[in-house]
Amino acid sequence: MSSSLFASVAARLRAAGCVFAEDEARLLLDAARTPDELSAMVERRAAGLPLEHVLGWAEFAGLRVAVEPGVFVPRRRTEFLVEQAAARARRGGADRPVVVDLCCGTGALGLALAASLDGCELHAADIEAAAVRCARRNVGASGRVYEGDLYEPLPATLKGRVDVLLANVPYVPTGEVGLLPAEARDHEPRVALDGGADGLEVLRRVAGEAPEWLAPGGLLLFETSERQVPEAVAVVSGGGLSAEVARPDEAYATVVIGTRPG
Asked: I want to staple 108 with a disulfide (CB 3.0 to 4.6 A). Which of 60, 69, 161, 184 is the partner?
């Protein structure tokens, strides 16, 4: 990599408003196979396409996860949710826990949890066809990916058997979607962002049916915003699960954990 080429790419990205221009320049230079490909990638990024869509992958929990255009990009802060799920699943003691990843997007959460647990029975689902294709590419033989609305496509044999239910539900209120960064609102599916009038409509559906799918002692984990915590906890408790809130010491994230009594 010539220093002049690196400087040129970084300058182009910086002029386009990329905060981490130097880091992104290194990634693009490493990924491009030809000068023409590099030029095209830089221009796509400068035009506002998420870096992960330009590269075709995102790093999540130490894994390189394929990310296709039009698919929700897994957020690094969500690694905390996976860490919480893994710690509690290990304490649960199941030899091969049953894991369901709802609103799975790329399948990153379920895949990362499976890697952390050294294996599980993994099922994932999403309503978006593009996300399902991407998740199947990532999950491969490690699990099964279904297309459909929340629990609808899951096999009925999972009812009462799920040890860990990861639900990366959308939680941005409809009226605030337009305030999101352009990378999200213009290039990620709205269904992965818009949580309804108060941001909790999808969560209500997930939590309402969760007790039917969870095993005794099974866990539901999802992210929410700090201001939504009281209502989110009420939703979980109202569905018959005990609720607790976890926050990391450093990264900005808020995770709510619901446990089925058992």
From this structure: 60
